[in-house]
Amino acid sequence: MFRRTRAQRDFREAQRAGQALLALHTELPLPDSPDPAEPETTVVPDFLPPDFRAPSRQDVSGFMMRWDIPLVINGEVHQCHCGAYRNWIVFNMRDDSVWLRCPAGHEAPEPRLDTAWYNRNSGPVDHFHPTLEEGLRHLGH
Asked: At 60, is the secondary structure helix, strand, or coil?
């Protein structure tokens, strides 16, 4: 009986923490009610608003992810010039470009990947890092 109560309490606390985190990052203004005299135009917003994208190469706080398996792009396994083909760090930059960093520290843009690919393959953001070095340390590089 006590285990179930503790599990339910922990679950409710996790839900509240998740809702608080979502509230911090989804405070977007609600659209005005449409005017019936004007024709409706559908505007599809970008997945990440420009304010949430990384501002520069030195400050990528939170816009990076690990990619431990081989990275397959257009049917080919992507490989660094040093021979590494797995354990990448993938950066999503403000200018809609994607950069790759191999375990040896070589960084290069990957023009075949874009922000849409990053958004489809990245999980939820679990940490925000003030510097690139702290983010890399968190991800194990």
From this structure: coil
Q: Let me know how long the chain is.
A: 141
Nearest to 113 by CA among 102, 89, 94, 97: 97
Question: Is the pTM for the entire model greater than 0.70?
Answer: no
Q: What secondary structure letter does DSSP report for 94?
A: T
In tens digits, what is the pLDDT along the chain, a chain of 141 residues?
567 788 888 888 888 777 776 666 555 555 555 555 655 566 555 555 566 555 444 444 447 888 889 989 888 999 998 888 899 888 887 777 888 989 888 988 899 988 888 888 887 777 777 777 777 888 877
Distance of alpha carbon 88 from alpha carbon 99, whole angstroms? 10
Among candidates 80, 67, 82, which has minimal Cα distance to 117? 67
Terminal-to-terminal C-alpha distance of the chain:
44
